[in-house]
Design a protein that fits this description.
five-stranded mixed β-sheet, two-stranded antiparallel ribbon, 19 helices, 7% strand
């Protein structure tokens, strides 16, 4: 149901302006980000997949890309074209622009999700704004071409599903095709997106039960046919952009689905000050990261939304209009993945990045809660002014903190843990290695016109690429004992591996993220 209120058009215009500002920020900052540990491998995978398609399947070099073949290649394929065709200063700068714009699409999808769920343009604006200022989402956008695109597609698929649900029991074919396309894009990024099929079944049942719709046998058959076509269409789109699945379009995707969430990464993670293997993280890992990595205002809005949802469920018989299929779907779409990750012993690491997609329904719910506050205080001028002032303070404070962390917004921690300083030594902070760029730029400036050798602690390309871009006269060596300078991040305490004197530190909020040491 579309909600009408004074100034509705202004909220729609504000959303458009927000997206425009987000695009402008991406265009003006994309080249400030370093190369993350995963990016080199993802770029190679994208190039190999492009060769596969351009050769009509004869070039199968993508099979050499280790576990990346187990993921859909749609985003990596697009990244390969971006790196090749965007006329920018470097190929990875093009990749960061590409990723940043996908992140903006996700912000738009969060707003559209709120609009489809509640028909409320004010909720649409605040959903988009809330996700935009969720630093762990926006900060990951430039470097994370797996989890952020999956999150954006998740929001799009949920919005398409709610639109489909609103037209039940006779959804038009355009909504069927829309849902199939959105779901197909989701699946073409990660096979775990098949969970949207479960949501489709849940949504149909919720609509028919809550709206007390009775169908005859022919209507049921048509509805089931349309639902089956959504699943089949999305599956075909997934297989199309997944070269590894071409050899066995049924067997390989289903086998990967069974292994989803149990990728065998043998590294360790820092959790409450202890280093534990990722395969052994406790059930509370995901929930803890949600609580400490999400702005407190966002958490408060989520809590209020959940309480109101439970209250509406209890009062279902007396107030059925408060318990809608859309709210059922949105709460299920964030609770189910969190619960499943906790009870299924899923392999999780690098904080909350594997579950960034749950921010999409959460942002929509948070946006609606803010809109409800505006509705309640709409006739009380003083209360409304206080509300606007408080919201402005909260959002500006988050924006100011993000600016202090820039360009490492993904190391954000909220006040519950004491910010980045409070989390230091207890949780992973700089897990992507993008701070190598800042360290390299300092070194290149400090040692201009001098020849020297440098080594780094992890993932050589995160250091070599900015060295190449800087034009420094440096030889990169893999053996740190042969190096004049050693660059390292604080992940796994790599900065403590040598007792060489520290000549430069990359710091944010008083916390060391990377160091440069000299022999």
């Amino acid at each position: 149901m579309v909600r009408k209120f004074p100034g509705e058009g202004r909220w729609a215009a504000a959303t458009v302006m927000l997206i425009a500002v987000a695009c402008a920020l991406v265009l003006s900052t994309y080249d400030d980000y370093g190369v993350a540990f995963d990016e080199y491998a993802l770029a190679r995978y994208g190039d190999a997949v492009r060769k596969y398609f351009l050769s009509l399947g004869s070039d199968r070099s993508f099979l050499q890309e280790d576990n990346l073949v187990l993921y859909g290649a749609l985003i990596s394929l697009g990244g390969s074209f971006a790196r090749t065709h965007l006329p920018l200063s470097g190929e990875f700068e093009a990749l960061h622009l590409y990723g940043g714009l996908i992140g903006v699409l996700g912000i738009l999808c969060a707003g559209l999700l709120a609009w489809e769920a509640f028909g409320d343009r004010r909720a649409m604006f605040f959903a988009a704004l809330t996700l935009c200022l969720t630093c762990r989402y926006s900060g990951e956008s430039f470097n994370n071409l797996k989890d952020v695109p999956f999150a954006a597609a998740y929001g799009w698929a949920l919005a398409a599903l709610i639109r489909f649900m609103k037209t039940l029991p006779r959804p038009p074919w355009k909504d069927v095709l829309h849902l199939a396309a959105a779901s197909g894009v989701l699946l073409s990024i990660r096979v775990g997106g098949m969970v949207v099929w479960l949501y489709l079944l849940l949504g149909i049942c919720a609509c028919l039960v809550l709206h007390k719709v009775r169908l005859n046998s022919s209507e049921i058959a048509v509805l089931l046919l349309k639902a089956a076509l959504v699943c089949a269409g999305s599956y075909l789109l997934m297989v199309l952009f997944w070269p590894w699945a071409h050899a066995s379009p049924l067997g390989r995707p289903l086998a990967m689905l069974l292994e989803s969430g149990h990728f065998r990464w043998n590294g360790k993670v820092l959790f409450w000050g202890e280093r534990i293997f990722a395969v052994d993280v406790p059930w509370s890992y995901a929930l803890t990261w949600l609580l400490i990595g999400t702005p407190v205002l966002f958490l408060l809005l989520i809590f209020v939304s959940l309480i109101r949802f439970i209250h509406a469920a209890i009062r279902l018989r007396t107030a059925p209009s408060a318990f809608t299929p859309a709210t059922v779907l949105l709460h299920f779409a964030w609770l189910f993945p969190l619960i499943w990750a906790s009870v299924s012993a899923a392999v999780l690491y690098d904080g909350f990045r594997h579950l960034l997609f749950v921010y999409m329904p959460l942002a929509a719910l948070a946006g609606r809660e803010i809109s409800v506050l505006f509705e309640r205080f709409g006739t009380k001028r003083t209360a409304m002014r206080v509300l606007v002032i408080l919201l402005s303070i909260f959002y500006l404070r988050i924006a100011a903190y993000a600016w202090r962390l820039y360009p490492y917004q993904y190391v954000y921690f909220n006040d519950l843990i004491g910010g980045l300083a409070g989390a230091h030594g207890r949780f992973e902070t700089e897990y992507w290695g993008t701070s190598f760029k800042e360290a390299v730029l300092w070194l290149a400036k400090e040692q201009a016109d001098k020849r020297y050798r440098a080594a780094s602690s992890q993932h050589w390309f995160s250091t070599v690429y900015p060295l190449r871009q800087s034009g420094a006269q440096v030889e990169y060596v893999y053996d740190k004992e042969r190096a004049d300078y050693y660059l390292s991040t604080t992940r796994d305490n790599d900065h403590l591996a040598l007792d060489w004197p520290v000549v430069y530190e990359v710091r944010r909020d008083g916390v060391v993220l990377a160091v440069v040491q000299r022999r």
